[in-house]
Structures are given as structure tokens and as C-alpha cells.
Amino acid sequence: MLDVRKLRLLRELAHRGTIAAVAEALSYTPSAVSQQLAALERETGVALLERTGRRVTLTLAARALAARTEPVLAALAEAEAELAAYRTGLTGTLRVGAFPTAVRTVLSPALVTLSRTHPGLELRVSELDPAAVPDALRADAIDVALVHEYDFTAGPDEPGLETEPLMEETVHLAALAAGPLRAHRAAPWIAGTPGTLCHTMTVRACEAEGFTPRIRHHADDFGAVLALVAAGQGVALVPDLGLLDPPPGLVLTPLATRRRTRIAYRRGHAAHPLIAAARTALHTTRTPPIPPAVGDRGKPGCPPDAPPPLERHR
């Protein structure tokens, strides 16, 4: 019978690409990962890895086996969740990952509710960019997470994971002067670090309007982004939850672009008591989108209505 632990290593190699990355994610040594995968090859009697120097690639047989591993791990997770339901009281550790604006606005009240409702629960929070969440969940580094996507950055479904909708926000153009997105095509722009969803969304939203933004500054904290806008350093796109304390003098123009937050967890874990408690707390205490303190209603001259819907890119 195939060893589930070895199958999991193969699954991780299919996702991460290198033995070193698998070893780092799962707290193994690279040699231990190599030994386990070699043992899996012997057990199956089929070549799973093609070795070229120090690099390895998966054979077609290995990719087929890795794909078959996902439903096996999901079935085991469902069995684990069913057994956990028989325990009395909710105890143990719940590890939650979330992006910065969600930590202070959405996650914090949910943590208060969880602590009061389940005092035996130990809560641990990690700040994670949504792009890092799938690997963290599959590696069992966290149990549940908050992720987001924009209209222009929706990605493919992640194998082995499930998500459910939590909330939706409006994205605003933050500037010192009124006008639709295309009116700021010549302005310098402020965006997130390249590789983040916020950076990608900014670039694609501008491209949908017929221009490529000239990005002068990169900042991942929306407070810093708004401070740069207020200092006349450029314009930026900011969702509702990034507008908690906007500096005075900003013009915030609501766009048709939306940011959607979802709850993510490993497939088969939805009914696990820990995950179910987290889901319930998040849905119960979720913070609705916060209207901007300045903008179309707070500064004369800013158009009262959002511009026409932008073309949606996926």
C-alpha cells in the first residue's frame, strides 16, 4: 500500500518545483525528501523523477499520481474532521493567516469572539500575502486563511483547497484632483510590491483604460500609500478597508473594480470543529466595507458617480 506521507511529498514537489522548496516548507532536509521519494519510486515500481544534474522533474506517471493524491488527502481530512467532532469542548491551536488590512478590521473582532466562545482555544495569527496562502495551507503551516482577489487578478482554483466568500469592497482612485482613471494616465503611480495582487491589479486596471501606469513608488501598507498620495507623489488604487484613516485633502473616486475576500482552508476540513468555529466567527463578526471619510461626498468637484464599469480581466 502506498505511504500517504510519501505521496504528500510528491504532491508538494508537483506544486513547488524543487526538492529544496519542499524540504523548507515541510521542515525536512533535502536529503530526507530525496530518500522518501526514492523509496516511493521503489514501492510503485515506476520512474517518478527525471534527474538532470542536481535538478529533478516529474515524469508523466508522477504527475498522474500527484493528481490522485489530492482526493486521498481530502478524504483523510474529512475523516479527521469527523473524529474531531466527537471530542468534548474545543481545544488546541488554531493557526490563521491573513493579509494586513484584514488583520485589523476583519480578523480582530473574530478573534475576540473565538476567545470568548472557546476559551480553551489557542489562537495564532500570521500576516501573509494571499499569494503565499495556498502553499502555507498545503504545507499545514496554517489551518485557515483570509485571501482576496480583485476583478483583474482572479486566479485558477488551487488544488487541495476550498474557499468561500466573506465580503466585497469597492476600490477607489486616491488622488489630489478629481477625475476618472484615464484622466491620471500621465501622473506618477503608487502600487504594491511587484508580484503582489495589489500591484497586478493596478497595472491591469490602467491597461484596461488604455495606458500603462508609470509606477514611481512601491508600498504594501495602504497607510503609507495614502501618505504618499497626500504628499503629491502620485495616485493609487485603494480598497475600502485601506481607507480607515485617510489624510485630509484626498479625493477618493469609487471605481467599478471590486476586491473580494474569501475564507480558505484545506479541502475536506470545512466541517472540522476548529475550522467551523473560525468560519462562523468570521461570518458573524465580519466588518462591512467602510465608507471613505473623504472623497466624492467630502470634497467639492469630485464626480458623484463611479465611472462606467471597467472591462473585467481574469
UniProtKB/TrEMBL annotation:
Which Gene3D superfamilies does the entry link to? Periplasmic binding protein-like II, Winged helix-like DNA-binding domain superfamily/Winged helix DNA-binding domain
Compositional bias ranges of the Pro residues kind: 301-314
Domain HTH lysR-type: start-end pairs = 2-59
Q: Which PROSITE patterns match?
A: HTH_LYSR
The annotated region (Disordered) lies at 280-314
- Would the keyword Transcription regulation be found if you checked this record's keyword annotation? yes
A molecular function (GO) held by this record is: DNA-binding transcription factor activity
* Keyword list, A-Z: DNA-binding, Transcription, Transcription regulation
Q: Which Gene Ontology cellular component annotation is one that this UniProt entry carries?
A: protein-DNA complex
Q: Which domain of life is it from?
A: Bacteria
Q: Which family does it belong to?
A: Belongs to the LysR transcriptional regulatory family.
Q: What is this protein called?
A: DNA-binding transcriptional LysR family regulator
Task: Specify the species.
Answer: Actinocorallia herbida
